[in-house]
Write a structure and sequence with these properties.
about 260 residues; alpha+beta; Jelly Rolls; nine-stranded antiparallel beta sheet; 3 helices; disordered N terminus; binds calcium ion
């Protein structure tokens, strides 16, 4: 099992050097956070700029709301940036609130995606979508994260992958068929710095645990992110982009204070 996971990691790592990206158009049907922190959005009102959807802050690329989905696509052309090489294309939105508290004893994050299985199977390695919980110190300093995504392995398969900040593949599973939406679930218990994962391929009726090497340690406050990749690259959510978003949030807080 360890060897196999290493092999998966190598596939992703080698993909860093791929110099092309695939067009992508991922659809998030709903996002919910329940337990200690609470958020819910079905993206069905077609309004991106009002609550609850406006709580999702675009930190990379531009997400839109249409047809009952939050759309993460390549059409905004997000690529070269301070943080990423020229072949890197992705969207990422961070939930501005709620944050998962350090005393939280159980917050469940569910990202309910359209499977888009054919697109995943046809894609180069690393193309896909997912959800992450990132630990932060006072919402600024990145400490650690846990991400759960569904990606192409570059060989015609879709795989669900649970990864930590060191990019270790904690667990993964092939996704051969789907009968409903793919639900990616992270269960955060930050009081004990723990995040576990499971996923569903039938819209949430049945779940499969994805914690063979877990749970993942995530410390301090937790920020929820959703992301879509069009690049052939190691799935790395939250980390560096989070710093940028945290700085933006801080800047916002400071300017608000200045006005009052
Ligand atoms: Ca929806
Ligand atoms: Ca909306």
């Amino acid at each position: 099992m360890r060897l196999t996971k290493t092999a998966v990691g190598v596939i992703f790592l080698s993909a860093i050097f791929n110099d092309s990206y695939a067009a992508y158009d991922w659809s998030l049907d709903s996002l919910s956070v329940s337990g200690g922190a609470v958020f819910s959005d079905d993206f069905n009102d077609g309004d991106r700029s009002s609550l609850p959807t406006s709580a999702l802050i675009d930190v990379i690329g531009t997400t839109t709301e249409a047809g009952g989905f939050l759309r993460l696509t390549d059409v905004d052309g997000t690529g070269p940036s301070f943080f990423f090489p020229s072949d890197f294309v992705m969207d990422q939105a961070n939930l501005a609130s709620p944050f998962i508290d350090t005393n939280d004893v159980g917050t469940i994050v569910q990202a309910n995606f359209m499977p888009d299985l054919a697109a995943l199977q046809a894609g180069p390695s690393g193309v896909g979508y997912g959800v992450a919980v990132t630990g932060t110190t006072d919402f600024v300093g990145f400490t650690s994260f846990a991400s759960l995504g569904v990606y192409s392995d570059g060989f015609g398969n879709a795989i669900a992958v649970f990864q930590n900040s060191a990019l270790d593949v904690i667990d993964f599973a092939f996704v051969p068929t789907v009968t409903g939406n793919i639900v990616l679930e992270l269960n955060a218990t930050l009081q004990s710095d723990s995040v576990s994962a499971r996923y569903s391929t039938d819209g949430g009726a049945n779940f499969f645990d994805l914690n063979a090497g877990g749970p993942i340690t995530v410390t301090d406050h937790g920020i929820v992110s959703v992301f879509g990749y069009g690049a052939a690259i190691v799935p790395v959510p939250a980390a560096l982009p989070l710093l940028a978003s945290a700085l933006m949030v801080l800047a916002g807080v400071r300017s608000t204070r200045r006005k009052t």
